[in-house]
Amino acid sequence: MRAAPIDALFDIEREIDDMPADERLAARRDRARPLVTGLHNWPASERGRMSRRAPVSQATRAAS
Fold it and tell me: In whole angstroms, what is the distance from residue 23 CA to residue 21 CA?
């Protein structure tokens, strides 16, 4: 699993914790959304490298 984007999401949350809600939302849209999109797309991009019988592969196929 890709830990760096997850760590970056937590970093963003720590940085914006004391901001007003509207500023937190804007920061999440600007900074976190690309990371979340990348995490969302990661399993599909890795399918070709996984065995079709692997539980993770089966789960990502079923979820798409």
Answer: 5
In whole angstroms, what is the distance from residue 60 CA to residue 64 CA?
6
pTM value is: 0.65
For residue 38, give the amino acid letter: G
Q: How far apart are CA 37 and CA 43, in angstroms?
A: 11
Count structural domains, the chain: 1
Tens digit of pLDDT for each residue in 13-46? 999 999 999 999 999 999 999 999 888 777 777 7
Both tokens of residue 14?
């720590």
Residue 58: which domain range? Answer: 3-63
